[in-house]
């Protein structure tokens, strides 16, 4: 890890299918977000766990199932560095599977341990509903947040999923949606925010979420002078 990544927004590449669309969205809004030095915030795409040492903010995309996601993160030595990064208090955004990976365990295809950043379970959508849940649904905000600035309550965003998150602590739920039942659409806990829907496929409101996240990262983040890791954790 060199100082080249210090102050960058890192989009983690671990083989997620929605990586390119997330990167395009982040790169689209980034020129409008200025660093504390007045320069446009930099966007870096990498699978290198060492990049998290100097990151100003991290975006974890993802689609598919928890088992594959956690296997791919582990194969790149990313699991412990992600946990360490989140514990550092710097801004973190999870998208779709990037939200589900934050839970304790996923029931998709069995019982699969996840990052356990936000205690809770990932469970199948209720019986009787068409799965996957695919299409546009309205967001219902539970409380204010800077990541929602400029986005009206009731705005429509795009979902594509068959499982949903049930956090142990309901207070971390930032927004919900209705699909035969009330489902968690967004969570926010300390420096972590994550969406079940795809902001990169949700038009102007989705882009605003990315922009708000980056702006919040610029305002909040202080990059620590952490030790450089030379080897992936075991």
What report would you give on this structure?
The protein is an alpha/beta fold. 22% of the residues lie in helices and 26% in strands. The two termini are 18 Å apart. It is globular. A hairpin with a 5-residue loop joins strand 5 and strand 6. The chain has one domain: Rossmann fold. Helix 1 crosses helix 5.
CATH class: Alpha Beta
CATH superfamily: Class I glutamine amidotransferase (GATase) domain
CATH-defined fold name: Rossmann fold
Strand neighbour order, sheet with most strands: 2-1-3-4-14-13-12-9
Let me know the largest β-sheet: 8 strands, mixed
- The value of Rg in angstroms is 17 Å
Q: Identify the overall geometry.
A: globular
CATH 2nd-level architecture: 3-Layer(aba) Sandwich
Series of secondary-structure elements, N-terminal to C-terminal: EHEEHHEHEEEEEEEEEEH
Overall mean pLDDT: 89
Number of helices: 5
| Beta-strand residue fraction | 25-35%
The number of strands is 14
Class based on secondary structure composition and strand pairing: alpha/beta
- Determine the N-to-C terminus distance: 18 Å
Quickly count the domains: 1
Helix content: 10-25%
């Amino acid at each position: 890890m060199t100082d080249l990544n210090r102050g960058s927004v890192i989009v983690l590449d671990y083989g997620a299918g929605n990586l390119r669309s997330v990167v395009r969205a982040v790169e689209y809004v980034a020129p409008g977000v200025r660093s504390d030095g007045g320069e446009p915030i930099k966007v870096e795409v990498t699978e290198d766990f060492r990049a998290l040492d100097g990151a100003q903010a991290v975006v974890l995309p993802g689609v598919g199932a928890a088992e594959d996601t956690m296997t791919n993160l582990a194969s790149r030595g990313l699991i412990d560095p992600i946990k360490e990064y989140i514990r550092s208090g710097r801004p973190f955004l999870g998208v779709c599977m990037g939200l589900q990976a934050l839970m304790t365990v996923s029931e998709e295809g069995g019982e699969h341990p996840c990052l356990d950043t936000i205690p809770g379970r990932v469970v199948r959508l209720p019986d009787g509903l068409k799965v996957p849940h695919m299409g546009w649904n309205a967001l219902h905000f539970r409380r204010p947040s800077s990541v929602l600035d400029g986005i009206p309550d009731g705005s429509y965003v795009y979902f594509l999923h068959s499982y949903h998150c049930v956090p142990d602590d309901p207070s971390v739920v930032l927004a919900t949606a209705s699909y035969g039942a009330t489902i968690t659409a967004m969570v926010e806990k300390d420096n972590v925010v994550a969406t079940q829907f795809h902001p990169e496929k949700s038009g102007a409101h989705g882009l605003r979420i990315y922009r708000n996240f980056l702006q919040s990262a610029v305002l909040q983040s202080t990059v620590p002078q952490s030790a450089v890791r030379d080897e992936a954790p075991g």
